[in-house]
Write a structure and sequence with these properties.
- Belongs to the NrdR family.
- It holds the Pfam family ATP-cone.
- One of its GO terms (biological process) is negative regulation of DNA-templated transcription.
- It comes from Leucobacter komagatae.
- The chain is α+β, with helices and mostly antiparallel strands.
- It folds into two domains: 32 residues; 105 residues, no CATH class.
- It has six helices and six strands, in the order βββββααβαααα.
- The strands form two sheets. A three-stranded antiparallel beta sheet has the order 1-2-3, with no helix packed on it.
- The longest helix is centred in the middle third of the chain and has 17 residues.
- The chain is elongated.
- The N and C termini lie far apart (58 Å).
- The relative contact order is 0.09.
């Protein structure tokens, strides 16, 4: 790590702590040349392998853009999308893998989107999973209904409340 003051090519770590978000490490460093102290933040980078073979850094913004299209006209806020993107990134980091295919990211988005908005989930899944017929939609709706019944209808109650609030 170069010193930001004198550009000396080395520094000594004085203190290391986990940052508030739990996803990065904050290190306090001191330059052996000029003696000045500075702080660095280290995060593990996630990379995405696109279908074309191009590798690029993971971007929460790109997750939000993709999901935003599925949420058009739905009662989903920008804050909801930002939280969804954060949860997707966290679930990817928990796997311990640093490089993902775009397919892996789509798989990571689906459960979070299903919890956020079932209609947006169906829209996203229909494109992402290449639904070819009404049977594919019916199977997806059946899965949603089964999951709702298994969870005691919590998602249904939230959706009905949201609809009632809109009227």
């Amino acid at each position: 790590m170069h010193c930001p003051f004198c550009r000396h090519p080395d520094s000594r770590v004085i203190d290391s702590r986990t940052a508030d978000d739990g996803m990065s490490i904050r290190r306090r460093r001191q330059c052996p040349e000029c003696g000045k102290r500075f702080t660095t933040t280290e995060t593990a980078s996630l990379t995405v392998i696109k279908r074309s073979g191009v590798v690029e850094p993971f971007s929460r913004e790109k997750v939000m853009v993709g999901v935003r299209k599925a949420c058009q006209g739905r009662p989903v806020t920008e804050a909801d999308l930002a939280l969804l993107a954060q949860r997707v990134e966290e679930s990817l980091r928990l796997t311990g893998v640093a490089q993902f295919d775009t397919n892996d990211i789509g798989v990571a988005i689906l459960p979070h989107l299903r919890d956020l908005d079932e209609v947006a989930y169906l829209r996203f899944a229909s494109v992402y999973q290449s639904f070819d017929s009404l049977d594919d939609f019916e199977a997806a709706v059946r899965e949603l209904r089964d999951a709702r019944a298994a969870s005691g209808g919590a998602a249904a109650g939230r959706a009905e409340t949201d609809t009632a609030n809109e009227k």
